[in-house]
Write a structure and sequence with these properties.
440 residues; mainly alpha; 3-stranded antiparallel β-sheet; two-stranded antiparallel ribbon; 18 helices; 70% helix; 5% strand
Length: 440
């Protein structure tokens, strides 16, 4: 009943309703474009490409693009070049003084960084585009009849359309962020992941109900219960924070000349401050062990994404990259300086370097269990596969896909709740104003 009332409240707020409708409309456009194949490719001859993108990094890319990667769509690269460009710019911001200056310039600096990211996205697309075209022609075993057009015409048209598709996806994501609800880029990725959900579930359902000894409906129910438990754990991982108490000796209340002495607040340090980035980095690095496994038969197990040593190495890399990415994205020294300038301090800790050391120590301590938790969720799909779960359905039991979906869902719900909360306060203010007028 509360859910229905919330939907009614949402529909009553004209601005929020328009934002949601705009978001849904742009997402529908993105999904439609993801189904349009590159000119010169027969979509009925892509079985080998779909088989090659069932797992590993290719499976992750295919999930992020909602299957466009395996359909040789004009949106095959999707938003991934933009994500790559954002990561590169973020990492370069640590070492490049110009980018460091832009990060401190406020809104104007943010706009310039966004423009740099856009141009870098185009450059990355121009590198990934030919790689993708070469791969579908030579590495995925597509039959010759899959290519209706060959030669320079196919290459040039495909390159133009792949680049245009990425730019269009980037534009859609930015429009959703600016005019809609939620983070546009993350929503497009999430919608792409969810698009694979019905087919994956149906495949698992038919496998369990049609094969003798597979468990039938009871096994499906058990899998769904376990899946919900994993989702709850993922929610905990995304939302868990360690609150560091902060005291302000003297602060001025906005709109009032009074000073508040001894006010107490908190610095929230997230258990998983790195998000899904450690998984993405680790997935990229795992290409190297897979290549080594191809060259040396004794290490062939490194090619198996469901194998023991592959997942041990994968989990180790996730833990390492969790510390690395947290260290470069959470500037404890800057946090300590900002706290000192605003007149705040951690009780019992001296401002400045001691505060920075304290924040760094706490962050390191909570990153360890957070990274273990993240690594465990990431290798969970490989574990459930050993119990007879289909690979496509197992991907929803953890890893990047599930954590992104949970994080985006929480972020979007929080934005909607903020609109509802503002509406509630507005109604209270209007009621109070009308009451005062009536009393006069």
């Amino acid at each position: 009943m509360n859910f229905i009332n919330t939907l009614k409240d949402i529909w009553k707020i004209e601005e929020l309703k328009n934002k949601i409708l705009l978001t849904l409309g742009l997402i529908a456009v993105y999904r439609f474009m993801a189904g349009v194949p590159l000119p010169g490719i027969d979509p009925l001859q892509l079985a080998a490409l779909k088989d090659s993108t069932q797992g590993g990094l290719l499976g992750l890319l295919n999930a992020f693009t909602g299957g466009a990667f395996s359909r040789a769509s004009i949106m095959a690269l999707g938003i991934m070049p933009y994500i790559s460009a954002s990561i590169v710019v973020q990492l370069m911001g640590i070492a490049v003084p110009y980018l460091q200056k832009l990060q401190k310039d406020g809104e104007s600096g943010r706009k310039k960084i966004t423009q740099i990211t856009r141009w870098l996205t185009i450059l990355i697309t121009m590198v990934q585009g030919p790689t993708y075209i070469t791969a579908i022609k030579t590495q995925f075993g597509l039959p010759a009849e899959a290519f209706l057009v060959t030669g320079p015409t196919f290459w040039i048209s495909s390159m133009i359309l792949l680049t245009a598709g990425t730019i269009f996806a980037m534009w859609l994501g930015e429009r959703i962020t600016d005019k809609g609800v939620g983070n546009g880029i993350s929503l497009l990725i999430t919608v792409g992941i969810i698009a694979n959900f019905p087919a994956a579930f149906l495949q698992e359902f038919f496998a369990k109900t049609t094969n003798a000894g597979a468990g039938g409906i009871m096994m499906i129910l058990i899998e769904i219960i376990i899946w919900f438990v994993v989702i709850l754990l993922s929610v905990y991982l995304v939302t868990a924070v360690r609150k560091i108490a902060v005291q302000y000796a003297r602060r001025t209340v906005a709109g009032n000349i009074q000073n508040v002495a001894g006010s107490r607040e908190y610095i929230p340090l997230k258990l998983n401050a790195a998000g899904v980035m450690p998984i993405i980095f680790a997935q990229a690095i795992m290409f190297l062990p897979a290549y080594i496994g191809q060259k040396y038969p004794a290490l062939a197990e490194l090619q198996d994404i469901n194998g023991l040593w592959y997942n041990v190495l994968f989990a180790f890399l996730i833990i390492v990259f969790s510390y690395f990415y947290t260290a470069i994205t959470i500037p404890t020294n800057k946090m300590a300086e900002d706290l000192k300038r605003s007149g705040g301090f951690i009780p019992g800790i001296r401002p400045g370097k001691d505060t920075a050391d304290r924040l760094d120590t706490v962050l390191s301590r909570i990153t360890f269990p957070g990274s273990l938790f993240l690594a465990g969720l990431s290798i969970l799909p490989a574990i459930v596969v050993q119990f007879g779960v289909q690979q496509s359905w197992a991907l929803f039991y953890g890893g990047t896909s599930l954590i992104i979906m949970v994080g985006v869902a929480i972020d979007t719900i929080q934005q909607v709740n903020s609109y509802l909360l503002n509406r509630h306060y507005d109604s209270l203010m209007k009621t109070g104003t009308s009451n005062r007028k009536s009393s006069k």
